[in-house]
Amino acid sequence: MAKNSLITDSPSRNNQAPDNSAPEDITGDNSDRTGHHPPKPPLITGRQCRAARAMLQWSREELSERSGVHYITLCNFELGHCTLKPGSARLLRLTFITSGVMLIDDDSGGPGVCLAMPVG
């Protein structure tokens, strides 16, 4: 004769109430409990792009050639008519950084640019 085993719906073996609270965030995810994320600041703003280009004395054509971002896209971005796809924003940011321009993030008192090393 087989013993009857007790089957319960409780996930706990110690007769404790189940923990229905949300799991602690250990992933570094900044979302709230509803899954919404605060907006991320852009990798580069149109004003930063225009200012960095001016510091380097580059035309839009030159920046387009150096970065691989289309000239018309640069025009529209700098004038505030569009946002960039993340890949294009990364290309611009990398182009400026490798050319000696530091991009100052929004959390440092507002977005800006400065020269990291003399242009020569």
UniProtKB/TrEMBL annotation:
Residues 1-47 are annotated as: Disordered. Residues 1-19 have a biased composition (Polar residues). SUPFAM superfamilies: lambda repressor-like DNA-binding domains. InterPro entries: Cro/C1-type_HTH, Lambda_DNA-bd_dom_sf. One of its GO terms (molecular function) is DNA binding. Transmembrane segments: none annotated. This is Helix-turn-helix transcriptional regulator. It comes from Pelagibius litoralis. The lineage of its organism: Bacteria, Pseudomonadati, Pseudomonadota, Alphaproteobacteria, Rhodospirillales.
